[in-house]
Specification:
Length: 289
């Protein structure tokens, strides 16, 4: 990802940010989707194999979501302070190894500890907001394109992987599928994460050279509103009502959607459908979204 600069200080050739975007999208599409949307497929097999009630099974997934909320600010601090590549690599390996360990666990409390303390921590640190932070650094003028592409790959991965995981569990059992998933994540995350760099400045490119910098004018020319490139500090953002509207709106949305997705397949089975049909229905929701 060397720099090639033409006349006028503008970057020539392929902008390295597109390679970074490709790496983030790939990791979101396959490994990321396994953690974000694949685990509802394991709900009923784990419940049956470990002889758990619905309450105890749901508690595992609920605590993993709670861990994501509590650890979110810490992850944000890590992403701001350190390079994104080692964060993605180490966290991905952590999550992959956690899946491998889970494939051989027979005890409920051990399963909960590994899933919440190892798999979820690795997933939420490496495959969550880290990708969006990377996009935010590499793209300014086309920031919406970068972030939308990563988020879309998560849902597309769910549409692809949920039916495959369901049929794999039917054929091989949930332990083998979880083992192979862990091996896949651990193997694939290292080479792909090598394409991720912290920022354009880390490879000697300025946003102006890449054509990503936004040059504000006095007005936007439409309704006379002032354009500003200044950013908010954390303290300044916390004082704005917009921040709290976004926070509580996102909290309510994630709370509802997470609860529905985790129990989507069990609900379909309760209504008389097979687990495969339930998985196909959930995959269709991902495809539509």
């Amino acid at each position: 990802m060397g720099r090639v600069t033409g006349t006028g200080g503008r970057l020539r050739g392929i902008y390295p940010g597109w390679w970074v975007l490709t790496a983030c999208c790939f990791l979101a599409l396959l490994p990321g989707a396994i953690f974000a949307y694949g685990f509802p497929v394991f709900y009923l097999p784990i419940q049956s194999d470990l002889m758990l009630s619905s309450t105890r099974t749901s508690l595992i997934f609920a605590l993993s979501r709670g861990e994501a909320g509590i650890g979110g600010p810490l992850v944000g601090w890590l992403v701001d302070r350190f390079d994104s590549r080692p964060i993605v690599m180490i966290s991905g390996l952590m999550a992959g190894v956690g899946l491998i360990i889970l494939s051989g666990v027979d005890n409920y409390w051990t399963f909960m500890f590994v899933y919440v303390g190892v798999v979820s921590v690795g997933n939420n640190t490496g495959f969550g907001q880290t990708f969006l932070a990377v996009m935010n650094r590499w793209f300014v003028r086309r920031r919406a394109i970068g972030m939308t592409a990563v988020i879309t790959c998560y849902t597309a991965g769910g549409a692809i992987l949920v039916p495959l995981l369901s049929r794999g569990i039917e054929a091989l059992g949930w332990r083998d599928v979880m083992l192979y998933s862990g091996v896949f994540v651990a193997v694939i995350v290292v080479p792909i994460s090598m394409l991720i760099r912290r920022s354009p400045e880390a490879v000697g490119i300025s946003l102006e050279e890449a054509g990503e910098a936004v040059i504000p004018g006095p007005t936007d020319g439409t309704n006379g509103e002032q354009i500003t490139s200044s950013d908010y500090s954390v303290k300044e953002a916390l004082k704005t009502p917009t921040y709290w509207f976004i926070l509580w709106g996102s909290t309510l949305r994630i709370t509802v959607t997470s609860g529905i997705l985790v129990h989507g397949i069990p609900i379909m089975v309760w209504k008389g459908a097979s687990e495969q049909s339930g998985a196909d229905f959930v995959a269709m929701l991902f495809f539509i979204s």
